[in-house]
Amino acid sequence: MFGWFKKTPPPQREYEPVEQNVAGYGDVTMLAEYFQVITGVSFEAQHSILHSKLVTFCKQHAIWSFETCLARAKEEPLLRQALIDYLTTNETYFFREVYQIEALVALVKENAEKVLILCAPCATGEEPYSIAIALLEAGVAASGFHIVGIDINTEAIAKAHQALYSEVKLKNITPEVKARYFTREASKQALRPDLKACITLKTANIFDPEFKNIGRFDYIFSRNMLIYFDKPTKEKAKKILESMRKDPAIPVFFGHADLF
User: 259 falls in which pLDDT band (50, 70, 90)?
Assistant: First the structure.
């Protein structure tokens, strides 16, 4: 049927690949400023690195100019979160700056009541899980504390929930302690469910007006977050976290690299 009908192929048209038009990836300033407004993270001294990362991000999402990326990020929550996730991925491992964790353990052991601890940011979970392990190893009952871990990066929070870690991440943990809190799954170490129950994980932005609704805490850990902020933003973040303490006399645990 219709075998007699000869289809004429459409005329060939030449298209210039849009991605080759690098003019759309020119000045990164406005996108960098917007990112700083929503996250606090500054790339002031790293514009060349930011430019390269944003070009990759835009191409991955079929966006052919920084202007379009900015407009869409303002209007599309999913794209905005994808941008945040892409630019806030950081590497960490268990028991970094262990002397601060030891100091926290000593304070918790002096407290007769259950304590609530905030870990902001918590990245992929190594920090709050390190604190939980340290408390349990020191004889603090699981019923004596609870940790809330927050991070702006949804992918990091998803990995923290999964709690599967390479051996490199556990390099500071002895085999005996590892055996108590982890089980091997193929090439990874999986955190035991009873330890995961000591931690609540949330995606959150400390600069969001709703953030303070998360509650008030006996102790607050915020290590290696302020290093990404300029001085005014550091001051703002510091005030927000300090306002969330139950006892104003208890200092926030900041990382050594976060110092002003």
Answer: low
- Residue 35 CB burial class (10 angstroms; 0-12, 13-18, ≥19): buried
Calpha distance 210→77 (Å, rounded): 16
Taking alpha carbons only, the member of 158, 160, 165, 113 closest to residue 140 is 113
| Overall average pLDDT of the 228-252 stretch | 92
pLDDT in the model for residue 20: 43
Distance CA(126)–CA(66), nearest Å, equals: 34
Task: Please state the domain extents for the chain.
Answer: 18-87, 98-258
| Alpha carbons 177 and 83: distance in angstroms, whole number | 37
Which range is least confidently modeled, 20-29, 129-138, 153-162, 234-243? Answer: 20-29
> Domain 98-258 adopts which CATH fold?
Rossmann fold (3.40.50)
Residue 81's closest CA among 28, 29, 25, 155? 155
In this structure, are residues 39 and 152 in contact, taking their beta carbons and an 8 Å threshold? yes
Give the list of residues 6+ apart from residue 219 with CB closer than 8 angstroms, or none.
104, 107, 108, 115, 116, 117, 118, 250, 253
Helix 154-162, helix 77-87: angle, nearest 10: 70
* C-alpha span between 24 and 104 (Å, rounded): 50
Residue 118 is which amino acid? L
Q: By three-state DSSP, how is residue 173 classified? A: coil
